[in-house]
Every structure is written in C-alpha cells, then in structure tokens.
Amino acid sequence: MSSTLIIGGGRIGLSVGSLLLEGGHDVRLIEADATRAELLRHTLPASSVVCGSGTEPEVLEAAGARQADSVVALTQRDETNLVVTSLAKFEFAVPRTIARVNNPANAWLYTPDMGVDVALNQADIISHLVAEEMSLGEMTTLLKLRRGQYALVEERIHPLSRAAGRPVADLELPTKCVLVGVLRDSGVITPHGDTVLRPGDEVLAIVSNDAAPHLAELLGPG
User: Fold this and answer.
1) Which superfamily does 3-122 belong to?
2) Can you tell me the distance from the alpha carbon of 74 to that of 68, in angstroms, rounded to the nearest whole number?
3) What ranges do the domains of the chain cover?
4) What is the signed CA dihedral for 41, 30, 64, 147, rounded to 10 degrees?
5) Contact call for residues 190 and 139 (beta carbons, < 8 A)
6) Tens of pLDDT along 31-61?
7) What is the pLDDT of residues 96-141, one digit of tens each?
8) Which letter does DSSP use for residue 190 in this model?
9) Which CATH superfamily groups domain 131-219?
C-alpha cells in the first residue's frame, strides 16, 4: 500500500484524496486553514486530515513525509507548492513529487532543481486536450498513459472508412498501435487477425500520440 501526502485541501486536493483512499492508498491531506480542515474531516476519515502548513518541515515530518512514497502539492499558490516539493525531495527524500501550476507564467520554475518530478499545468493540459480532440475528429480519448505519451482511445467505424468490412490483419495499423477491443451490439469482442470490422463497431485501441491521427484517418470516413 503506497503512502501519499497531499498539501492543499481545496476541491482538487479533496477529489484526489478521496480517489486515492477509495483505491486503498494511505493518504494524509495537509490543510493550513483550520476551518477548512475541520470541514474536510466530515468528508474524509478524520485521521487522514492534518491541520498545518505544508511549508513547515515539522508538519511534514509529523504527517509521515519520511515514509511517504509521494507528495502532491495542490495549493493555489505556486510559491507554496515549490517550497513543499523542495522540502519533500531534498529534506525528506520523497521518491516522487507532483505539483500544481497555478500561473502558467511560473511553469518554468517547476523543475527537478526545485524538487518537482511532475508539474501539472492546468492551462497547458486543457489546451492540448482541446487541440487533440479537434484534430482527431470523432475519436475519443478515454485515458492517458505513460505520462501522456500513449492513450486509450475509442472510435466508431464509419461506413465509408477504409477499415469497414476488412479483417484486422489487412489493416495498415500504425506501428505504435494495438487494438484491444471491439464493442459490437451488446457484447465485447477480442480482436484477432481474422476479425472483420463492421460499420458501427466501436473500436478500443492503445495508440501513441504521433500515431493517433493515422488511426483516426483509418477508422473514420477518410
């Protein structure tokens, strides 16, 4: 069971903490505002909520930073998030640190030298997702994998697509692409080389970012 410290008990911190707890993780959520911390104790297990500042080493220590597998800084202040990751990485040797970028102009500060392993730049993430969805037509991204290098995608076979009526073995699939399932009628089919794709089939695939446009063109109207 992994151990995670979350600093910042706003909506995002609460949501992340709830998901991790549901997944069986050991979570401590540190919130500086006493009133907010008390409210969080009505939603999360009381033992999971710590009232204090994540920029204070003694608070991190008491919350279990030395044993933590990861620290996630999700406050609304970039300077606070950077102090947290620096302490976590260099004072407590936490293996993995993740930090929220509030102001895109400060994104350049979120580097390994500041103790940041992963920077979550909300503006950048949303912009790329919108651009990606527009470029892929009817293809839907269901899940990002390997830090966004790959994605689990879904697309319905268009009647005029090059894939309609052809077996999987005859498709010129991109190199970095694997078909993992076909939703047909009320069932799920595991695709094999002799599986013939029909118009209306919903294809699930794992594909790299650079290969996704090729797959969208193959399954779409062309």
Assistant:
1) NAD(P)-binding Rossmann-like Domain (3.40.50.720)
2) 16
3) 3-122, 131-219
4) 110
5) no
6) 999 999 999 999 999 999 999 999 999 999 9
7) 999 999 998 999 999 999 999 999 887 666 665 565 555 445 677 7
8) -
9) Regulator of K+ conductance, C-terminal domain (3.30.70.1450)
